[in-house]
Amino acid sequence: MRAISLLFHDVWQDHADESGFTSEAANRYKLTCADFDAQLAGVTDVRSDAPLLASAITRLDDEAAPSGRVPFLVTVDDGGVSYWTSIAERLERRDWRGHCFVSTDFIGRRGFLDREQIRGLAARGHVIGSHSASHPTRFHTLPFDRMVAERSRSRLVLEDTLGCGVDVASVPGGFYSPRVARAAYEAGIRVLFTSEPVTRVEAQDGCVIVGRFTLRRGDPRDRAQRLVSAPGWTRSLEWATWNAKALVKPLLGPSYIRVADWLMAARPSSRAS
Ligand SMILES: [Zn+2]
Prior knowledge:
By secondary structure, the chain is of the alpha/beta class. The chain has helices spanning 24-27, 33-46, 54-57, 82-92, 115-123, 144-162, 178-186, 223-229, 232-252, 256-265, 268-271; strands at residues 4-8, 11-12, 31-32, 72-76, 99-102, 127-130, 168-170, 191-193, 201-204, 207-210, 213-214. Helix 1 (24-27) links the parallel strand 2 and strand 3. The two termini are 31 Å apart. Residues 77-78, 131, 135, 172 line the site of zinc ion.
């Protein structure tokens, strides 16, 4: 099947450091509440169906997709407190629910969700998943055993918090490889979200792998709308750009951010903003 999975990070009202990780690199992924509202409103304008949840994604085939269109999902990485303070209510206003991926070593720290809030979000119908324990930025390069340990520790904390099983996760840094999937499976994960901008949902080493389209600071306010309504070729273009980045990142090291900026600026959707 195919699915258009949207990837958000924290949103903020007064300052980007309110929620989640606080480096300049992290802040590049955060939206203001107003920008987040605009992205959601854009989706609502073109889609009457609610976003899918991970529990449904494994059961659907293309023909069974609601409204005959490629279904979409809402996911939020890192476990920042803004899912509790700002994001959940905005989704629920539309009768939507999303996926909240938590970096469990940060639970209860300043700017991050605490256990009570995580339980509250689950009770309100949001899917709680693992975003690793310590949020290694280059997760895909970790030794295999370390990947499994990160996943297992994170999953145990969430299961202890929620009192039920947790088998959904996203990859910090987003890069995907078969090793990443194998490690996730070994740690009990069955649905794994990457940051590879693809709509294809496929089984790999026991896990269902779901790509995602990232929304960043400075994106055009109709980017989410374009993603959920666009013809396939615009998403394919994004996939091509992503692959170019994946190729140059290990070679360029610190220069990567500048090149990534250039690539992002070269995207047709950015020029249209
Ligand atoms: Zn992250």
